Amino acid sequence: MPLTRPTLTAAPGPVARRRPTTDRWFRVHRCAAPRPARRLVCFPHAGGTAQLFHDWTAHLPSDVELLAVRYPGRQDRLAEPCVENMAEMADAVTEALTAHLDVPLALFGHSMGSAIAYEVAVRLEARRVRPDRLYVSGRAAPHRARPAGIHAGDDAGLIATVRALGDYQSEVYDIPELRELLLPALRADYRLIETYRPPRPAVLRTPITAYTGLDDAHCPADDVGAWAELTGPGRFDLRTFPGDHFYLVPHEGELVRDISTRLRGNPQDTDEG
Fold it and tell me: Which end of the chain has fewer CB atoms at under 10 Å, N or C?
């Protein structure tokens, strides 16, 4: 059954500037407006980092602040242990978001990040904070995912899996020093997402928009469309882009402009449920 949680109302925020700042869990890209009207929280893919969203602010409305999630075990958090359990990851991000709930927010996740964003939305609704919208990208709905046990294989198999998804930054695994640094986080992320099998995923009141690449053989469109079953009637839509699993890199501007249009629409303004 859909959860019944009210929408958070906007309140004055701090003076904002378009420059990135960081805290432990988020790389915060301040907006150009005097204060943000809303926030977009972005979750990277397995093995990914907050850098994926570095240029998104150029395509967002001037009053939208972007928070890019910084998973442990990489970049500035390299010395911290990786998180290998979905509940632990979603709990930690949700708790970190409590400092950023002075304005409404929306959540975007790509691949593994979609599942984490969904679990954060579940937890926010349980706290009576309903996101404006959940955007999921390149990921089957939780009840349609088919884990392949990649995390339990050898390094060569793990890297081959990443390469098969597309060319985005896979060349870093050709450099021995970088491969040694990056593989622990990649394996931990695959362990997290492949052991994530919710028996009865919660149905959200939050509207869901799903995106996928037309040539993404690892993410069938029917499985992406199944996200419709995790929100209420009339609260789901699906958009496809040309390209593979990392379609969002060459189509960044078009994707973020589509997200921006939906942010401005704010479907909750007319939602009485």
Answer: N
* CB environment 35-72: b (16+ within 10 A), e (fewer): bbbbbbbbbbbbbbbbebbeebbebbbebbbbbbbbbb
Q: Which of these is catalytic: 111, 137, 170, 260?
A: 111
The number of beta carbons lying within 10 Å of the beta carbon of residue 139 is 30
Is 137 annotated in the active site?
A: no
- Could you read off the pLDDT of 231-267 as tens digits, one per residue? 999 999 999 999 999 999 999 999 999 999 998 765 4
Q: Are 193 and 220 in contact (CB under 8 A)?
A: no
Report the C-alpha gap between 106 and 108 in whole angstroms: 7
* Rg over CA atoms, the chain: 18
Helices and strands in the chain, H and E counts:
6, 8
Among the four given CATH numbers 3.40.1350.10, 3.30.70.270, 3.90.1150.10, 3.40.50.1820, the one describing domain 20-144+198-267: 3.40.50.1820
- C-alpha torsion 1→105→233→262, nearest 10: -170
| Predicted model pTM | 0.88
One-letter identity of residue 260: S
122 half-sphere exposure, CB direction, 13 A CA radius: 18
